[in-house]
Amino acid sequence: MALLRIVAREGGIPSLDQIRGRILSRFPSAPETSELLTALRDWYRPLQYAEVNEDGARQAVLHRRPVLATFFLSQPGWDKFEAFFDDDSQTRCSILKQFHMAPHYSEEVNFEEGGHAVVLVGCSPGSLNFLNSWGSSWGDSGQFKIENHIVLGNHEEPMRFYDIFWLEEDLKSSERQAYNMRVDEELCRRAEGHQGIFELGYRCPKCDNNAPLADFSGSIRRATCPKCQGSFEPEAGHRIEAYLI
After folding, report:
1. DSSP run (H or E) holding 75
2. Which SUPFAM superfamilies match (predicted)?
3. Which of 28, 48, 86, 205 is the most exposed, having the fewest neighbouring CB atoms within 10 Å of its CB?
């Protein structure tokens, strides 16, 4: 998912089947999460990862980055989890809460077989929304919600989150150029529906004079003032406003 955000990645984007095949070839038995993520980082430039807490995971998904989550349950815990979200359960679209799973927190966990990985895809103040891999007929069209990270933890191992990302500075020059072109095209497309924005004034940080946005040349990353011809980088806040038009 993180690779899909790279425009025109050199070498292309591997398919899920290709990634899965490479993982199974390298790891015949289930690897540690950090070991697997390190291998993926080494295989697929420019991916990076970092373990984060729930707040960090929430911030990542709000910035549209995928977050891998892992958890371990006892067998009775799994029975409760599966029954709650089963395809014929009346609670399949509800939020699994702490009081539902609390009786299983202190139970023994089989760490060889009791683990699972899902992807955090959304959040709200009172819940975390995950994408599972058990098909669209399970849960809420293949997804499920829990109250917080404590719900799927236990006395030995908490639920863990791994932010998977890349940095612009690690992109190839051709990838950075393709990304900038895509941004410019998208901004132009959105601006067509908000023509009035070009009549707004903007103060040049070079000469301190105001001019309509339409009179500035350049791009969202570097603009040229129509009065002093000075070149400057627009303030971050204004760039964000442009992206959110």
Report:
1. helix 75-85
2. Cysteine proteinases
3. 28
Backbone angle region of 218, left / alpha / beta, with phi > 0 → left and psi within -120 to 50 → alpha: left
* Longest distance between any two alpha carbons in the chain, whole Å: 72
Distances (CA, A) of 183 to 43, 192, 193: 27, 14, 16
Identify the CA nearest to 98 among candidates 82, 123, 77, 124: 77
Separation between Cα atoms, residue 138 and residue 205, nearest integer Å: 55
Paired tokens of 84: 């709650």
Q: Are residues 135 and 194 both part of a single domain?
A: no
CATH number at residue 156: 3.90.70
Residue 227 gets the label, from left (phi > 0), alpha (psi -120 to 50) or beta, of alpha
Task: Determine the average pLDDT of the residues in 35-51.
Answer: 94
Average pLDDT, the chain: 88
Q: Domain of residue 184: give its range.
A: 174-243
Find residue 145's DSSP bridge partners.
95, 129
Whether 159 and 210 map to the same domain: the answer is: no
What distance in Å separates the CA atoms of residue 130 and residue 145, rounded to the nearest whole number? Answer: 6
Contact between 129 and 120 under an 8 Å Cβ cutoff? The reply is yes
Mean pLDDT of 71-76: 95
Q: Of the candidates 76, 127, 130, 132, which has an alpha carbon nearest to the alpha carbon of residue 102?
A: 76
The pTM is what? 0.76
